[in-house]
Amino acid sequence: MNKPVLEIQNLTTRFESEQGIANALDGVSLQIHEGEVVGLVGESGSGKSMTGYSIMRLVEHPGSIVNGSILYRGRNLCSLSPEELRKLRGDRIAMIFQDPMMSLNPVLRIDTQLSETLKAHRSIQKYDANRRALEILHAMGIPSPEIRLRQYPHELSGGMRQRIAIAIALLLEPDLIIADEPTTALDVTIQAQIIHEFQTLIEVRGTSVLWITHDLAVASTLADRLAIMYSGQIMEQGPAVEILSKPAHPYTQGLLRSIPSHNERGKPLAQIRGSAPALTQLPPGCPFSPRCEQAKSLCSSPVPTNQIGISRSTRCHYPTVQTL
Amino acid sequence: MTDWINYDHPWRLAWRRYRQSPFAWIALIVCSIIVFAALFAPWLAPQDPYDLNVIDFFDAKLPPGSPSQSGFIYWLGTDGQGRDMLSAMLYGLRISLFVGVLSGLVAILIGMTLGMIAAYFGGWIDALIMRIVDFMLGFPTILVALMLLAILGQGVDKVIFALILVQWAYFARAVRSTALVEREKEYVEAAHSLGLSPQRIMFIHIMPNCLAPVIVLGTMQVASAISTEATLSFLGLGLPITEPSLGLLISNGYSNMLSGRYWISLYPGLLLLLTVFSINVVGDRLRDVLNPRLSR
Amino acid sequence: MNRFILEAHKISRSFSPHEDLLGKVVRSILIQPNPPSVKALTDVTITLKTGEVLGVVGESGCGKSTLGRILAGILEPSGGQLMFRGKNLSDMDPHTRAETLLKIQMIFQDPLSSLNPRKRVLDLIGEAPVVHGLIKAHERDSFVSEALTRVGLDKDVKSRFPHQFSGGQRQRINIARALAVNPEILICDESVAALDVSIQAQILNVFMKLKAEGSLSFIFISHDLGVIEHLCDRVAILYLGRIVEIGPVDQIFRDAKHPYTQALLQEIPRIGVGKRRFNPIRGEIPSPLSPPSGCQFHPRCPHAKIECSSRMPGLQQVSHEHHAACHLLYGNSTHLTTELSK
Q1: What is the 3-state secondary structure (H, E, C) of chain B?
Q2: I need a labelling partner for C153 at 20 to 30 A (CA). Which of A105, B3, C260, C340 fits?
Q3: Does pLDDT of A264 surpass 60?
Q4: How close is the nearest chain A Cα to the Cα of C296, in Å?
Q5: Which of A78-82, A255-259, B104-108, C1-5 has the lowest mean pLDDT?
Q6: Which residue of C116, C161, C166, C188 is the best one to mutate when testing the B interface, meaning the one whose CB has the most B CBs within 10 A?
């Protein structure tokens, strides 16, 4: 197997608030290899977005990374100076947000935004910058890109804005893209178009992607490997096909079973009981244990990450691979 | 970024956030002391400044710290009539606060009702009320108040009336805009669908959710009413000389400034400043903690 | 007894931009035409059978939320008729009408904003039944306890405020509040879309339990075809304010006739297929302000012909209860089958 582009080891990001201390991330370890798409799936509050923010070092007060390392091609992002980070961000590692307006400036024209991004990281002539901008818009399936370039973000539809945001992220041909729910706010047909174009582009360039989503279905159509998060921990990770067909962690099993297409039509759905605990009030040991049907007394003690075979791991005391 | 569940009532949460600013906390304590002093002025003041029997004309214009004929010390000096400045200020504060708070409360009542009516009925009623509001806000406050008092004459009631008239429009505008936002929320549609009457939806469901901006604005407006009243009294159009407010005390001492008897104007002026300032600080902090955009 | 509990006949709704008095005066002086209005719904005819679950599917701007609100009596239609148990709502006196509309309740998308943040659960659920005299004021407490238990909540939460609950619990409160006035129809507008996956199943199960109890009919508005397939008996597909296809769920999911339905079904990401490539339909959803001529789907349709851009196709019966609005369905159906199966 080729070497990882990004290697996260034992990452812990902590928030301190009036309600107490909360580990938004608790010992997260994850690898993303060259040209690989990793789907990071979790519900709200599971820490999936926080993983993205932590990698980009965008965690703001009152949160901070308290433990672990994030190695990008062997360099620890946690120990870089702000200047070095700035050079890396946007150039080698780019981020796409759920709301495209997070990366678009509402008062600047699209062409200005694209060429500013280029000029910030490369010494490039204006003519070349415009040509590159046109190319990338064309590649993102944007019709009549010459006209779009002269427009402002508010003149575009939501889907078009997200395409532009993705184009900006791809403009400098980064090694790694962190995509935080980029298609969640879009309609199904538009989502399909964007995923299609994104897939084509990253395959041609061999870009590695961390695709953060709450939607297992979207992740399963895109990802080579999946990581399932719950309450700040990665519960299970491994090749997507294996996790989806033979989940080992009771949480993954519960999630997959609750999906309507895995249930007989019109019959009650298999459901996970209860709801996710607040991060400040986690139970000892496995955070999923209060909702787990298979929980035993051992589950209230710290859970190690267990290897299953060569490529899979799970954070459960009693991992049992079940075929769905 | 992280979705924590809060287990607190919105007001209690706001209160807890309020206390996080030590400056605002101090301002609130100062405010409380001022209100306390105003409420209990008759018991706190060493002298009753209205009682002509205890006022000794020979004690007039004594500097701070001088002893009186009857033995106690004028800590802040005396004014032109020989009244103890400290006592006069406490009584003045009482009147200033009374005028400010009462006019503010009545203005809130009128403004909220009209604002809710405008938001609720819409159409020409809304247009009519809001044009009156625009008209009222188009004039400088002090000008309207001066004109009114010139017509009505002096008196506490007249000052309060004038202050209500110049203030209600602010509340009407704030309440209307908040109510219009609240009206579009899904809980209002739900109440609609549950067959609740429009009046009930407007006044029992929507109005409590419009209170936050009113409280913030109300605090600020009380401060501005106090200073408006002081201005009016200073100009001689506000309260009668028999009921001296802080503004009137400043005005009385003004003529003595040049002769070096600074204390007659300075101390009431400082008290006025402190009062208005601390109320404004409290209002500012309330705006921060009650702003829905800042709340999680 | 009428087998339809709710019939909507040629419902239309347009929204015109807000104009104040001054604007109207200026416009009439300058003799300008009326400002353009957005047609959110055009001639939508649907029926709901007693005990049935009818799905309504569509993308943003298709008018599905507007339809839900009109059916729930929250919005007035600009045209068309609503019949509840065969009686026309517009013929009713205000009192009967209000009583009838109480029988149709709505569950909204956002479980938090649909609960008044300054009311306790006891008031949220107990207010309407007391106001309408369904229960006495002193019965409120036990009534609310019962309502909470029915939707799977602990009855001790009565004195709590909405923000003290998780998303799933809030949606249960919303359901309990709607059920408190004894409705016969529940209109669920994207009622699980804002919830986490593991919670969605719980709420869907609540709906299914209610359906099994037998006294309710449902209109289930959603963009999630997986949920629709699992829950619904029939489904209507909306595109730009018109029904393009309507029919029994098993028929539509097996043999969709309208190219838009086919595209939707094909492009829904599904689990278990493994990594795969989409073959998406082109183009963006047109703005309802300037809808395309003819069949509104024709600019995106892979099978569009000349007549598609000039003439609007009407709904046509495909088989029993299954209707679709597509020109390719007219004339020889064999030609269509070969065309659409490509």
Answers
A1: CCCCCCCCCHHHHHHHHHCCCHHHHHHHHHHHHHHHHHHCHHHHCCCCCCCCCCCCHHHCCCCCCEECCCCCEECCCECCCCCEHHHHHHHHHHHHHHHHHHHHHHHHHHHHHHHHHHHHHCHHHHHHHHHHHHHHHHCCHHHHHHHHHHHHCCCHHHHHHHHHHHHHHHHHHHHHHHHHHHHCCHHHHHHHHCCCCHHHHHHHHHHHHHHHHHHHHHHHHHHHHHHHHHHHHHCCCCCCCCCCCHHHHHHHHHCCCCCCCCHHHHHHHHHHHHHHHHHHHHHHHHHHHHCCCCCC
A2: B3
A3: yes
A4: 15
A5: C1-5
A6: C116
